[in-house]
Every structure is written in structure tokens, then in C-alpha cells.
Write a structure and sequence with these properties.
About 10% of the residues lie in helices and about 30% in strands. It is mainly β. Strands 1, 2, 3, 4, 5, 6, 7 and 8 form an 8-stranded mixed sheet that branches. Strands 11-10-13-14-15 form a 5-stranded antiparallel sheet, with no helix packed on it. Strand 1 and strand 2 (about 35-45) form a beta hairpin. It starts with a helix and ends in a 27-residue tail after the last helix.
Length: about 525
Amino acid sequence: MLGVLLLGMLALASLGLPAPAHPRPSGGQCVERECFALFHGPATFANASLVCERLRGHLMTVRSTVAAEVISLLLSSDGGWSPRLWIGLQRPQGCGEHGPFGPLRGFQWVTGDNHTSYSRWARPNGDGDGAPPCGPLCVAVSVAATGPGDPAWEAQPCEEEAAGFLCELHFEASCGPLAVEAGESRVSVTYNTPFGAQGADFQALPVGSSAAVPALGLQLECAAPPAAAEGRWGREAPGAWDCAVEKGGCEHACNQSTGVPRCVCPPEATLQADGRSCTAPAEPSCNHSLCEQFCVSDPAAPGSYSCMCIAGFKLGADQHSCEDVDDCAQVPGLCQQLCVNTNGGFECLCYEGYEMVDGECVELLDPCFGSDCEYQCQPVGRDKYECICAEGFRPIPENPNHCQLFCNETECPADCDPHTPTVCYCPEGFILDEGSMCVDIDECEQGYCGEHQCHNLLGTYKCICGPGSPLEGQESLDCDIKPSQKTKVEGILEEEGSGEYSTGSTPGPTLRTPPAGPPNAL
């Protein structure tokens, strides 16, 4: 009968007359935006393809277990009817080698490809199923072919008629079934799809589908904005319908407390002309008065905003203020040695005896390590040192690593050997008295300067050269020396002193006695 109807449609089309209505499917189901329709009636593969194409679809491709389950669902809803049904799998005309050729055994989908993650051949070891090896072959599915289970695939000549066929259609958007409040037994819904399927049990409905609720006198249609994948149920008449169905069509909330359904909008939003949609509330200005640091508008929810904080801070419990993050506690081992939390960050420090070099703590080297100080070494800064001497001693100017006896008074205690008290030492320019004191030698009393003026210093002296001296008017240890020797004499004067208190600093505390050997030992 279906074949006759198709021939009639083709004949009328060739005469330029309008074709009759499409045959109505005996069952249909949709999964998101893909719909599938079951048609009864004998038809060749070509005629079945024509019907699907006129519905802007094609014969069904069964590429997955989900598609196979849809076929089982359609057949079970049809009362267990299980003759052979064409699907969109075919092999072009010609005689080729026989064999598996992969899961599709050399067959192709009507979409021109052979991609699949599923196959269900009735005869696992062959593709002929009794069909001639040459000529075009097409595939039909049947529950009876293998008994209980998913419908199995069988190849047969394409010009033969199958008992029906399965179409696959794609839509740009879909709606879910009408949401009905629990306990509303008076609500019964009947759906009609654009491809002719009718019923009350659909997982999804493509755009253009209608929903009839006779008990409420309600007729709704699934529609979607351009490029949207999710549609909404609505109607041309403005205002809310019964709140028990699809929330009355209201975008925000439906209220039927007065007996008449009406839509309400959130604060700062107003109801639009359709009586169901709400205008977006005025978007608050993102500024510092709203958020402590950053304010970001949410494009997905007009009128809303979120506060954000810079790195090193986190959003407070009020969702507006920012609190410092204790980086040191949050990330153990953040620093090599010491971690100090700062406002919005942290600082790495080193233990005593270490210093930060290129972000790493490096142990400080003791600048006194390897020094040859006779008495004691004292660090100066990071990489320098100086030698210090015990009390009563001072570094030798020309050899500062060694110490010499020193006295900046007219008399000082002698440096005596504790094991041999009679062996004592005095600084140069001093002499040991009868006791254990070193007394400055008064070179002037001993006539060191002759007829010239003499000035005694601690440990030394100086002459003020007068008339008749080559060094007249100058200071020297010897006024009779030649002028060329003056530099050497001045050096001696600068290094030593005797007779008057010096303004130089006194050396630091002593830890040991310098080695023996200074002059004036008794």
C-alpha cells in the first residue's frame, strides 16, 4: 500500500499537481535533537529513502547501542511488530570479494560514510544471508532474525520490499516534555511532531512540535530563538496559563492565588508585553563601592555581578571584601628556610649565618678563615678582616698581622714571663726600672739632638733643627743628616712617639701574650 502511495506521489509531482500528505509514522521517538520514525507498509529501499528525504531526513543509521535501543523502544511501543524494516545501510552494485570488510562488511551508510561503533549482523560469519552475491544489497533489521535481543541486520536485494522502514531526522533545537506539577492527575498531554509522530511519551520534542492539554483547553508549541539549541513551550496569546503546566510559561514565577494565573518578576525587573517574560534589571555599576578590589559583570545573568580579588587575597565571607591569604601556611615549603607572610604576598628570609643570593640561602664564609693574625682576627663586613692585638700591644705598621708592645703613657707595666718573673720586656723607647715598670726614655736629657731643640715623645723623640743644620727649620731625629735622608726620618717620626700622651686608640682586650723578642729585655 505504501508503495502505491509513493508511486501516486511521484505521478502527481510530474504533472505539477500538489502531492498528497506524507504517510504518518506509526511511532516516533527523539533523543535531544535527533528524531526517529517507524513507518509500516511494504516499500523498496529506494521508495523508503524517498519518504525520509521528503521529511528532510534519511533512512536511519544505527551507529551505536543508543540507536539500537531506540529501535527496540519503537518496536515495543508498536505492540511487538517485528517484520523486516529498512535502515540506511547499503552496498553499491557490483561483484566484489566476499568477506567481513570491517564491522560493516563493505556496506556504507546512506550518508556516504562507514563510521560506526556498533554492528549487529544476523549471521556473524557472512554477509550474504542468502542474498545473491552480485548487485546492490541493502540492509533491514528484524527482531525475529535472532530471537530476543537487539534487532539484527540482514542483507537483501534493494528492489525487494520490506515490511516498513525507519527514518532519522535532525532538528536545530528541541524542548523537553511539559513540566507538570506532581499530583495533577487532570493533566493529560498529547504531542504532535513536525514529522507526523503522535503520542504522550516522548523524551524530547523538536521545534515545531505541539502539545495539547484538553482538560485545560491548552495548546502550546515548541519554539526557539535563532541559533539556540534549547527551545521553550509557548503560545501566541499573551499572559500566563495554568501554573500547574510548565510554570504557566513564566520566565520567573507563576502565581495563581487569586484563581487567575499571572507571572511575576524579580525586584527591579518588569513584566514584558507577552505577560510571561521579564525585562533584565538594571545592571549595577561595577565600582569600588560594590567590591573591595574588582567587580565583574556576569553576561549569563544580566543585572548580576561577582567580586574578585587580586593574587594573594581571597574573597571574604560577605563575598565583597578581600582577605589576605597566608601563603606560608597554605603552601608548606614555599621558601628554602624562613617564610614571612606579608599583606598580599610573602617574603623568603635566611637563617643567621646565611644570606640570600639569587633567591637561594647561601652559607656565609667567615672572612677570618685562613687568616694569619698573630693574636686575634676580627671580621669587617662580609669579606674583609683586621688583626687586633692584646692590651698593651698594637699591630706592627709594616706587618699588621703581628703585634708589638705598646705604651701610650710615660710608664707602663712590663710584659714579664709568668714562669720567669725576672725576664721582662718593654716597648721600644722604654726602659725597665728597678721594679716591673717600663719607663719612657728621655732622649732629650741624653743629648740626642745636640745643640738643637729637642722634644721628647712616648717611645721616641724629635729634634727641631736650628741654624747650621742642613735641615734648618725642620723636624728630624738627627739634624746632621743630609736632606736626602729626610723622608726616612719623617717615616720614623710618624711611626713612633715618646714623652707625650698619644691621641691614638688603645688596642682591644687580649687573649694571649705575644711571642718573646721585643727589645729592652732584661
